[in-house]
Amino acid sequence: MLENKKEFKLISKKNPRSLLPNALTIFGVCLGLSSIKFALDANYVMSVIAITFAAILDTLDGRVARLIRGTSKVGKELDSLTDVISFGVAPSFIMYFWTINELGKLGWLLILIYTVCCALRLARFNLTTVEETEIWKINFFEGVPSPAAAGLILLPLILNLSGLFEFENHAITSSIVILTTSILMISKIPTYSLKRILIPRHMTIFLLLGIGIYLSLIIFYTFKTLFITGLIYILLIPISFFHFRYLRKKSLIFSHDEEEMEDVL
Question: pTM above 0.90?
Answer without folding.
Answer: no
